[in-house]
Q: What sequence folds into this?
């Protein structure tokens, strides 16, 4: 190798080792373009909408479960009444 190519190899090796030590890839934080700021606003709005929909689904799920519990409680009351009638009939 001549001196120039050896110097380039050493420089590239040094850059690779620096990159591995830092361990970070991609864009640096804090450097956002105007289109990225718009994207962030759109992302926040989508997140808010998703949260609203999630809360609505949760509310419906709780209503369904409360109705299910109420139906089961009515069934338990009916079965206890029937059991009471059978016990009285056997005496």
A:
């Amino acid at each position: 190798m001549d001196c120039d190519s050896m110097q380039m190899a050493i420089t590239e090796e040094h850059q690779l080792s620096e990159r591995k030590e830092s361990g970070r890839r991609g864009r640096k934080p804090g450097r956002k373009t105007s289109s990225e700021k718009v994207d962030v606003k759109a992302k926040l709005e989508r997140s808010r909408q998703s949260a609203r929909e999630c809360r609505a689904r949760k509310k419906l799920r709780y209503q369904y479960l409360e109705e299910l519990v109420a139906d089961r409680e009515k069934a338990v009351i009916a079965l206890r009444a029937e059991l009471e009638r059978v016990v009285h009939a056997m005496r």
